């Protein structure tokens, strides 16, 4: 029987406002792809990323353009060549994984791990703001073991100090979202080390990060916007200590697994991260992240409303997805 495909644009309100160095948002805009066959349906969710020129319309159109090949039975391996890395391929790839699991009755986790998946400790993200605002966010979440702090402005040392003082027992990741410069990165890294920061994520703009090869790394530096696919990883050796794997960048779980394996071969640490999306987007990433060094899958915790059923969060622990959600 031919597959039936549906593509839906959805919006989920964020609890308050989510702010990074490039701007603010009040809702998560997602595209959901559903592929049905023989009475079973698989779903995948993606978040179009404006940083890479993606829009809700362009991602929707990219999936629609694949309708004939999806209906004709394209598999995940062929999909890697048929679509470029990005949000659209992520939605289709994850829908295919979910459909395969539903048809076979075998969980996705069984296909990628030898042992049953376990709950993971995820970071919780604090939005960019003035130091006093960020200290208040940190105090409200000081009981969480891992915080991810959005920075990337002219007053970052004050922000870093405010957060570390407000949450002294939490490990902290700094995410500059390409907001630092050649002029301030050495001083900012040194201050981060003094404050006991665990990781600094994407301090410089992608493609303008060669200085990282020539300066000290007193805190490990993680690539985010600079990393997409496994084939490009060699160029980051000597620049970064870790890579942040996001399904919307890699273009799905299939490519993300390849990226993870190649990153390990090259000696990179692994973070598995996310865009601000629902539990449907996080579910495959939770399985990917089972052996990650850092996990940042708090998207649903930032929403005012999630899908039902959704992932189960207990504090900062996120459990593997129930098969009614995905996989």
UniProtKB/TrEMBL annotation:
This protein's cofactor list reads: Mg(2+)
**Which superkingdom is the protein from?**
Bacteria
Gene3D superfamilies to which the protein is assigned, alphabetical: Enolase-like C-terminal domain, Enolase-like, N-terminal domain
| Pfam families in the cross-refs | MR_MLE_C (PF13378), MR_MLE_N (PF02746)
InterPro entries attached here?
DgoD-like, Dipeptide_epimerase, Enolase-like_C_sf, Enolase-like_N, Enolase_C-like, Mandelate_racemase_C, Mandelate_racemase_N_dom
CC cofactor note: Binds 1 Mg(2+) ion per subunit.
Q: Which UniProt keywords apply?
A: Isomerase, Magnesium, Membrane, Metal-binding, Transmembrane, Transmembrane helix
The record's similarity note reads: Belongs to the mandelate racemase/muconate lactonizing enzyme family.
Which named protein is this? Dipeptide epimerase
Organism of this sequence: Mesorhizobium huakuii
